[in-house]
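Thread: Newbie trying to understand structure tokens

Hi all, I'm a second-year student working on a class project, and my supervisor (Dr. K.) asked me to get a predicted structure for one chain before our next meeting. I've only ever worked with sequences, so writing a 3D structure as a token string is new to me. If someone could post the tokens and maybe explain what I'm looking at, I'd be very grateful. Here's the chain:
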Amino acid sequence: MRRRSTLLFNFLMVIGLTLPGTALGAALSRTGSPVRTPTVISAGAPPAAAARPRDKPSHERKHRDRKQHQRKQERQHHDRQHHRKQHRQPPQPAAELPTGVLPGVDTVEPTPEPDGSISAENRYIVLLDAGVSDPLSATNAIASDVGGVVPTHVYRYVFDGFAAYIPADKLNAVRSDPRVKEVVPDHEVYISAQTLPTGVNRIDADLNPIADIDGHDERVNVDVAVIDTAGNDTHEDLNIHAWANCTPSHKNSDDYGHGTHVDGIIGALDNGVGVVGVAPGARLWNLRVLVNGHGLDSWIICGLDLVTQYATDQGDGYGDIEVANMSLGGGGTDGPCTPGSPDLEHVAICQTVAAGVTVVVAAGNEHDNAANHVPAAYDQVITVSALADSDGAPGGVGPATSRGPDDTLATFSNFGADVDLAAPGVDIRSTVPSGICEICDPSGYASISGTSMASPHVAGAAALYKATHPAASPAQVKTALLNARDNVAIPGDPDGINEGILHVGAGFASASAGTERTGSASHDAHKGKGSVEGTKRHGASKGKHRR
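---
Reply by user tm_fold:
Sure, no problem. This is what the structure looks like when written as tokens:
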């Protein structure tokens, strides 16, 4: 697990590839020095979801009637207990997870600039040598031997190492320590009545017998990690199971709103209130890795370290994580995922996937080839582009969305062979905090757009599959989703590859176990995906951009 690295992954520019022109947006800097003030893509109120026409077209009435008939049939033939749903339990406070955050994090907490940026000056990630048996003991010993070094985080699961504040005159001493394999700079990151949301409707999650969306609060028995802005939060429409705060902030809750929005798309309760998620009531693990949308690589690695740790039940009553959503990314290309790889981001994600966690990521919002962005370019993840859909139905006859005509590739979405499938990502209504934050709303719900919103639709779909196929590997989950998709050409997609649209309707389980609905061989052939080692050159120098 110990990996050599010359450059810590230009990773996260977190918070969900929330597209330009919605409530969240700006570019993410990956340089270790102070950065330019981010260009805010949008600071206005979240756009309202596109309204349906007063007179519904006949195709929509037929689509609605068909769904109602299918729901009735499914409820007659599927016992809810058989589909691994849990009856509502009395609300329990979310469990706080122990993290690798060290006491020193308070003493060297970065002071935000007026624009909210955080300097990464004198901050580093230290990879320990393979001979080190106890990362925490080695960390403390190095700090003791080299005065002035203040460790902030220790890592045990994605690799053995630690993050620290290291004065310039002490850097060579740390690098020359025999217990140290590599020292790489840390980097700043920053963000550039129950209804059936159009996204849930479009992918037919309301017809899925496992989701069993009928207004009765019975919960899908699965655990999903959300590496984002949310932490110790409460929302009447969410089943927040566990949380952790990997930042130095003493505020544990969502101060931006993005992570809570992602939560709702994945697992908002089927309780007759607000919205409903793709996998209603899924147990959500909120891993807070940003402060007001800004953070450091070291905080993100802390989140990945936790996911890898809890991929296996620790016997502490929390259970295990089966799916992780990362609505984040930045500039870079695919690279090797082997010992000695210089791409630590890829190494960390590969460790998480190898532990059995299906990782779903956003393709990005630059209207660019996803091969130029990581983690979207990595073979081991499921990469998701954004579909513009206004009426929750196929056919492309609904009104235009805020980001393109109905049933087209969203105007901001990345594309290319590294995209695995598309999912709704425009004007998506979901849960947000009701207090004061960037995308908060007094109602507790808001509509925003981005591949950040498309990714959690797929994470929710992966959760549905894991609920009835608990032994499925990440590769098998990915294959199941590809086999069940609507493999159609998406207008507006410039790459000529039919990655298809996520579909988890009534036939999801049976279709995913066999052949795909319309065949996937051509898509896989176009993807050109390599082995675990990867075949593409890593572009570490490219700047990070928020999605």
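A couple of things are worth pointing out once you decode it. Residues 222 and 463 are 6 Å apart (CA to CA). Residues 1-16, 19-57, 75-84, 513-547 have pLDDT under 50 and may be disordered. Feel free to ask follow-ups in this thread.
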